């Protein structure tokens, strides 16, 4: 592709009407409410009882992955908007599909669910902090942050509304009306996920010519970035002395990012900047493929004696 055409991705703005943006925000809010309905108080307390595996995972999620992403951007030298999209993805918490993928990978679902619970809260602070910090250290991405006058406080407020409020509402509903929460948990999760997928598909359809023109540019970067995240999660766990089941859970949690939150931030603060939007959107597709492939590979490797795969209930699948 002609270099002049490649550079256009830094000027392209993907279309999303104000009403469409409100629907997108509502969709991820519903998704996070579904996640919250799946969490119990014990999931938050577990890190106090068995802190090593979740602690290693959270460090890999919020410290190592953003730092290594910054180095990867320096090595690959993608276009500025693509680079900032990679930094944004690395700044997001784990995705809502990580628990079921941990189960498929025969990992420790208790570790996975605890990381989901804690990372969702931590992201309210860590996502704006990492995006601002690592984005400002790269001169080219720093120009984008300066051009949009990005305020970490504004990002914090948005992330709190999108993640924090649904998390609080879900926990209040679970504790106040446990029977109702049990009945609506599974259908609500399915509805919220399908609703979000429909919204993303509608956005892609409205911007299909841009998506087709530029997605090939980001495939390689996302492939390398996601492989880095999966390996970083797994090997940080193994180096820290975690068992196979725990390391598999950390691997999946770090490799499956909340790209939905990333999309919300791209359209709320960066006006759908082309490289950022397509990197985040393609990550949302690719991490499912890569996560399932990783889980399949793990199923072919028996757990060591003394380690057992968790049952469906441990991952809230039954």
Automatic annotation (TrEMBL):
**UniProt entry keywords in alphabetical sequence:** Membrane, Transmembrane, Transmembrane helix
Q: How does it sit in the membrane?
A: Multi-pass membrane protein
Answer yes or no on keyword Metal-binding: no
- What is the protein's name according to its record? BASS family bile acid:Na+ symporter
Enumerate the Pfam families for this protein.
SBF
Q: Which residues span the membrane? A: 20-39, 51-76, 82-102, 109-129, 149-169, 190-208, 214-235
The answer to whether the entry has keyword Transmembrane is yes
Concerning InterPro entries, the annotation shows: BilAc:Na_symport/Acr3, Bilac:Na_transpt, Na+/solute_symporter_sf
Predominant location category: membrane
Its localization reads:
Membrane
Q: Which organism is it from?
A: Desulfosalsimonas propionicica
Cite a GO CC annotation: membrane
């Amino acid at each position: 592709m002609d270099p002049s055409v490649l550079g256009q991705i830094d000027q392209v703005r993907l279309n999303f009407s104000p009403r469409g943006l409100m629907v997108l925000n509502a969709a991820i809010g519903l998704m996070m409410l579904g996640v919250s309905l799946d969490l119990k108080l014990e999931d938050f307390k577990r890190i106090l009882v068995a802190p090593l595996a979740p602690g290693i995972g959270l460090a890999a999620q919020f410290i190592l992955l953003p730092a290594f992403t910054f180095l990867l951007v320096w090595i690959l030298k993608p276009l500025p908007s693509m680079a900032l999209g990679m930094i944004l993805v690395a700044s997001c918490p784990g995705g809502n599909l990580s628990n079921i993928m941990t189960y498929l990978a025969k990992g420790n679902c208790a570790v996975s669910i605890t990381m989901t619970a804690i990372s969702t809260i931590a992201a309210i602070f860590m996502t704006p902090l990492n995006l601002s910090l690592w984005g400002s250290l790269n001169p080219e991405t720093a120009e984008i942050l300066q051009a949009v006058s990005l305020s970490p406080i504004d990002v914090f407020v948005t992330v709190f509304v999108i993640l924090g409020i649904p998390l609080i509402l879900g926990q209040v509903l679970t504790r106040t009306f446990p029977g109702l929460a049990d009945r609506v948990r599974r259908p609500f999760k399915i509805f919220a996920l399908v609703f979000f997928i429909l919204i993303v598909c509608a956005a892609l359809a409205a911007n299909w010519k841009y998506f087709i023109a530029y997605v090939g540019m980001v495939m390689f970067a996302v492939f390398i970035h996601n492989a880095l995240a999966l390996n970083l999660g797994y090997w940080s766990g193994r180096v820290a002395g975690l068992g196979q089941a725990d390391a598999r859970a950390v691997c999946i949690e770090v490799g499956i990012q909340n790209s939905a939150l990333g999309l919300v931030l791209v359209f709320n603060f960066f006006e759908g900047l082309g490289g950022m939007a397509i990197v985040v959107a393609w990550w949302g597709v690719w991490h499912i493929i890569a996560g399932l492939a990783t889980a399949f590979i793990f199923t072919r490797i028996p757990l060591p004696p003394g380690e057992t795969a968790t049952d469906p209930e441990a991952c809230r699948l039954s």
